[in-house]
Amino acid sequence: MPVITFIQKDGSSRAVEAKNGASVMETAIHANVRGIDAECGGSCSCATCHVYVDDAFLHLLPEADEMENELLDGVASERRPGSRLSCQLTVSAQLDGLTLRIPEMQA
Ligand code: FES
C-alpha cells in the first residue's frame, strides 16, 4: 500500500498507509490525522481539506480543475504553488511516499 506522510505545522509527522483509489482526504480522516477538517465530506465545496504538496510530487498529480482552483483562491491559509484540496487527490501506487504539509488553519 502507498504510504503518505502528513507533516503538521509544529513539524511533527505521521506516515499513513493509504488505499489505492481512496482520496488523500479520506486517508487522513480514517487515520485521524489532525488539521484536515473536510467539512463537505469530499464534494469539493468547503476547502477545509487544504494541503501543501511537496514539490517533488506535484508533477505526478493531475492539474486542479476549475472548481478546485476557485476554492483554492479562498483557502484560510496562504495559497502556495503546492496548494491542493486533498479530497481531489486520488491515491495510487505512483504516489507512494507522497509528503504533504498541513496548513496553519483550515477555516
Ligand atoms: S472536503 Fe470539502 S473541499 Fe475537500
TrEMBL record:
Write out the GO MF terms. Answer: 2 iron, 2 sulfur cluster binding; electron transfer activity; metal ion binding
Keyword Metal-binding annotated:
yes
Q: Which keywords does this Swiss-Prot/TrEMBL entry list?
A: 2Fe-2S, Iron, Iron-sulfur, Metal-binding
| InterPro entries given in the database record | 2Fe-2S_ferredoxin-like_sf, 2Fe-2S_ferredoxin-type, Adrenodoxin-like, Adrenodoxin_Fe-S_BS, Beta-grasp_dom_sf
The cross-references to Gene3D superfamilies, in alphabetical order and at most eight, read: 3.10.20.30
Q: Which GO terms describe its cellular component?
A: cytosol
Which GO biological process categories is it annotated with? P450-containing electron transport chain
* Keyword presence, Iron-sulfur: yes
Q: Which cofactor does it need?
A: [2Fe-2S] cluster
Pfam families per the UniProt record, alphabetical: Fer2 (PF00111)
The segment(s) forming the 2Fe-2S ferredoxin-type domain are 2-106
Give the family this protein belongs to, as stated in its UniProt record: Belongs to the adrenodoxin/putidaredoxin family.
Q: Which PANTHER family match?
A: FERREDOXIN-2, MITOCHONDRIAL, FERREDOXIN/ADRENODOXIN
Q: What is this protein called?
A: Ferredoxin
Q: Which organism is it from?
A: Noviherbaspirillum cavernae
